[in-house]
Fold these 2 entries.
Entry 1:
Amino acid sequence: MPIGVLKLFTSPHKKDLRALRNILGFIPGNYSLYRLALRHKSMAIDTHKKGVKNSNERLEFLGDAILGSVVAEVLFKKFPYKDEGFLTEMRSKMVNRSHLNSLSKKMGIGDMIDYDAKLNNQGNKNSSLFGDAFEAIIGAIYLDKGYEFTRHFIINRILIPHVDIDQLEQTESNFKSRLLEWSQREGKEAVFELLDEKSHGQSRLFTVRVLINGEEMGTGQDFSKKNAEKNAAEKACLALNILA
Amino acid sequence: MPIGVLKLFTSPHKKDLRALRNILGFIPGNYSLYRLALRHKSMAIDTHKKGVKNSNERLEFLGDAILGSVVAEVLFKKFPYKDEGFLTEMRSKMVNRSHLNSLSKKMGIGDMIDYDAKLNNQGNKNSSLFGDAFEAIIGAIYLDKGYEFTRHFIINRILIPHVDIDQLEQTESNFKSRLLEWSQREGKEAVFELLDEKSHGQSRLFTVRVLINGEEMGTGQDFSKKNAEKNAAEKACLALNILA
């Protein structure tokens, strides 16, 4: 019996290890990394080291980067004739917080997260708790097993079974449409206003704001007017809590 | 003589291959990837495939992600007691366009880029040409040689010789200070104004704008007022062309 499997019977954490094995499809090497990845900041432990509290936020930073790389490569290879604007937009659809939250729940990571139960009572539906832990787990896998392993894990255990890239391509997850649909549903008026347009050599920088029933809910700037509107809409979606 | 070295004498691109070997420290496997990485969009070639023009933009998308991952890991390990806010800020100092532009020039990549000379005549000092090609080269190395090779390349050939992380940590590359320094130098008045403050559960969303001599040059939103100001300052630096 390989030593990894032995741990499932002998480790003091055997219950957790078995749950992780079921979720991840492999037996964690360094258990404490995964435990840390599942520790939300509301349960941070004071490490007594220079005032740093131990939670999954650092691992999330790392995992976010690794996930971004793997998804970038997958899209780069899957869409050889699409430009970088398309690739960037597809990636943001795949790794946005609400998509990661739902992936995290689908995979059963949610049930393993340590967090302060009070958080849940506030009815904060858009909590990024799940997506954060998901990214932190990716960070833990990377430190535990290296890039190639993590890349295969992301592709074979997450993207292939859980993410329909072709369907995502069709989905209008554009913030502007989301905001407009929401406004229509709620009987509110959404208006985009061009506030400013500045020349910079060949390009122009656009500043746009979006008003909901006359109240400014977000502004955006970009060298493309469409993107400036999208940025403003994203801020408004955030402010209105309609991202999920 | 290994086959790679043979190419330096027999390939039709031997001159380019030698130049690349000198810059990168290794002999490229797939030459055409590197050539594409050095092709600015102003020199895009029509591939006659679904209207896509071939330039380094797709490779830049990939390289940007790979570079982000490697830098994330380096910082994660170098600063075990720093929180993710610090790590994020350090990374943005390391991979911001002006830093990548200067790295690209230092390494000599700049001289190899194919771009429309007219671009240079516009005196566009902040051109992202060099930084873009730098990232695209990272993307090419990744496709040619894999993650571990690229990771070692970035660490040993770029970060160790060219980037003083400890010094960057001290540098105030914060956009707000940059903007304030610039204003002082130019004898202009920079004012940050809080436009709005909205409650969202426990957090508040701040909207801030920055005025230069009374003219709005950028707005920013964030759940921290400091970051909202930083965002507004970044937009203003962009608009004023003082990022480099």
Note: The radius of gyration of chain B is 21 Å.
Entry 2:
Amino acid sequence: MDENTKDYFSKDRMNFFSDGIFAILMTILVLELKVPQIQDESSFAELWKGLVKEFPKLFGWLISFFALSVIWVNHYRLCKQFKVIDHTILWLNTLLLMFTAFIPFPTALIGDYPNNQLSIILYGFPMICITAIFPIMRLYAIREGNIFESIVPHRKIKIAYFWCPASYALGVCLSFIHVYLAYIIFLVLPIVNMYPRKLSMGGCSFEK
Amino acid sequence: MDENTKDYFSKDRMNFFSDGIFAILMTILVLELKVPQIQDESSFAELWKGLVKEFPKLFGWLISFFALSVIWVNHYRLCKQFKVIDHTILWLNTLLLMFTAFIPFPTALIGDYPNNQLSIILYGFPMICITAIFPIMRLYAIREGNIFESIVPHRKIKIAYFWCPASYALGVCLSFIHVYLAYIIFLVLPIVNMYPRKLSMGGCSFEK
Amino acid sequence: MDENTKDYFSKDRMNFFSDGIFAILMTILVLELKVPQIQDESSFAELWKGLVKEFPKLFGWLISFFALSVIWVNHYRLCKQFKVIDHTILWLNTLLLMFTAFIPFPTALIGDYPNNQLSIILYGFPMICITAIFPIMRLYAIREGNIFESIVPHRKIKIAYFWCPASYALGVCLSFIHVYLAYIIFLVLPIVNMYPRKLSMGGCSFEK
Amino acid sequence: MDENTKDYFSKDRMNFFSDGIFAILMTILVLELKVPQIQDESSFAELWKGLVKEFPKLFGWLISFFALSVIWVNHYRLCKQFKVIDHTILWLNTLLLMFTAFIPFPTALIGDYPNNQLSIILYGFPMICITAIFPIMRLYAIREGNIFESIVPHRKIKIAYFWCPASYALGVCLSFIHVYLAYIIFLVLPIVNMYPRKLSMGGCSFEK
């Protein structure tokens, strides 16, 4: 069987597939925002009051949308450096997609129960996994040697790669002091990760 | 890290990703149309009466579908002129996608509460933002100089670029006189923007 | 503005976008199938009875899935003959997508009220429009002359192009005798249109 | 009509379309996970109790997500060997997509009624069909001769191709002893099929 002799997966197909999943997720998140039930259908004040109660859902939508867009950009940045996609990269990527596809559920949880610590833990969980899989993919690719386009000189700073999952974990821990601290971190992290940095610590952020 | 030295994003990936989000949005809008509950399951008249009540939802679906298709076409028209995608363009585009991905929620709002002014304001809000981001992207690209394929001679007419968000804002304002005036504008604007114009004011419409 | 001088749209983008919408529609149709509520959770018989009541929904899912897959294939067949995409083709295509994106709603209607003639009329309506837009696109492309890859010799048989919307219209009419007659036609039409035919009447089916 | 003379379908379009459907399915599965209703909104214990009841849904999500990702990979592996896509391959693929698009429904069934044998039978049914269509496509392509890129030397081992649908069928049968036996098989099968094997029986797994 010839697909065993050259067992590499198509990079384009994997990227396309991942992009598709990211796009769908960023879109279906909005289905969680529900129209409030009000009595007087033309009352501005009553609809406003109903929408204010939706604020946690809107906030959840916002931080998940930003997190997903940063994950998408960093996924692009990491994958464009790959020369080939072997089975380990393919299944690490699938694992990444699995945790990403899970995000709408904890997003709905924090929308409904924003003050419940369990919501925050369950929101942080896939985020920690996703942001940890990026450096794991990178470290695997470095170790294998033939995956990256060029041998990149970032062998030393392995622990620094994990500052992002560590930050999400910190957010979860801080929720034991006050849930708002977790939300601040969940909001700030994607923003911090938007621009690639030339920090010597490198390979930080969601991926880069 | 080599992605910092040449920090341009893939135009194809960004276009593909945006197209995906537009396609999904135009499709999931229909999920808002609910089958009416009727007693006599085979009664033509009763089902008709139930569906007539759905008319605002159908109207909302229609204007959002058309707006999204015009946004898609204009997004195509603007982006095909770009030579490179830098970080500012990438994140302006993400902001554009964020407001676009929000559309199903206010569409549901005007479907449920068509006579409520707050619904109209919340519907107009993402539309104003989206139609404003297009000329902002264009003006940024003109200023940067190296983003457009060729130096386009549209430097002068900067204010005219913003006639479309201004029209949406006008629609929102007119709703204070009568909500129907807003709906007429929301319906007419996408139709007006369907065909590219050679108007000297240029760069008008959702994007072009 | 250079996009006015060469105002053709990208065929690849339009195809990609249409394919995306077809794929999403064929997938979200399944969301209409609801798990029945039963008392004894492990009772085979009770769940079976609940599912039998779902049969109209399952049937609706089936005929819409097949219709959409035939629309997709015929869309491919028509569009691959196009050399360029001008504005008329682009907006005819958007109209086609609009009626296609509407399909989940009447599919839900016939799932809930299979014996209601209004459901059947509303199901037939987008199907008639879709299957009519295909020959309209073809006739427009023939008339324009520069749209088809090669001048195709199918100028004479213009009325025959419309047998498919006519068949859907017939199905709707037959529902006034018995609703089942309409369903038989709705089921048979996609199957008939699966294989391209060399019939001299040509250009039949959903598109070809 | 020139599309009859050379009636092959575009492999890229078919792959793209199938990938799109797989991506959407893997994403909308999560919509089945519902936020539990609790009284005390900030109670960790109550939310935990509510989520524990969701465990069958989470398990269903997990096995379907893995099954779909394996189907995607094996679909890629099979299709990349095809030189051309004729009508039989195209419609076998559509049939494959139909059963795949059905998966969210039985996944919801086993989530709601995990101890009901009918749920398990209905979950096994599309899986048996999907895993059977892969070897049917392969056998058809071998027989036709001009479909595979190169004549592959796997003519003898035809029955072995069907071990995967047979395993799913076995899982369904074992559910008559105990439902958990079926779930173990449904969980193990995708994992077993993740890595391509060089087993002489070849062409096993979901596809390969």
Note: Confidence is low (pLDDT under 50) at residues 1-5, 198-208 of chain A.
